[in-house]
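Weekly structure sync, notes
Attendees: PL, DS, HV (note-taker this week)

Item 1: OmpH family outer membrane protein
DS walked through the input record. Source organism listed as Sphingomonas floccifaciens. Sequence as pasted into the shared doc:
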Amino acid sequence: MKTVIATALLAAAAVTPNLAAAQALPDAKIAVVDSDRIFGQCTACVAANTQLQAQRQQLQTLAQQLSTPLQTEAQSLQTAVNAAKGNPDAALQGRITAFQTRQQQAQQQIATQEQTFQRNVAYVRQQIGERLGPVITQVASQRGATLAVDKNNTFYNAPAVDITDAVLTALNAALPSVSVTAPAQAATAPAAGATPAPAATRPTTTRPATGR
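Item 1 (cont.): predicted structure, written out as tokens:
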């Protein structure tokens, strides 16, 4: 029995090197892509960044326009409350309530616009990312690379393995522009058993501008 086991072990040992040789991986050829440069210089990226900056400026302007009169009203109300020695009458209390309502509406409007802006930013990244991956694969394959990595994740790389220029050229050809307006979100379905409002009483909504 011992002889049989020893023979089997020797046979297994003899086979192992052959299996290792069959499973050996080829030497990797690595390509490097500077993603920061891609997102900063590609034609679609530059145009999208300009338009997104304009959207951000519009949002900041809106916030200023809404906050300025509220700040003025807040100061006026504080003066009135101080004069009433902390005991506002019905009229002053009504002003305070109306102010709080306007303040909440302004905050909600700004929050909604901020969410829209962030969705637009994410949509731009999505469009670029969907094209960038295949472009990197194509260029790296054409250069004989078996692996492509982000330059920002390397300690050192020789200029000869950097394919960023070729990726930029191919991406500009494949994706000359992107949309900076994210598709509208699907409306939330009404709860089960809920009765929709009659058509005559439904509020009219205004479609937001898309910048087109």
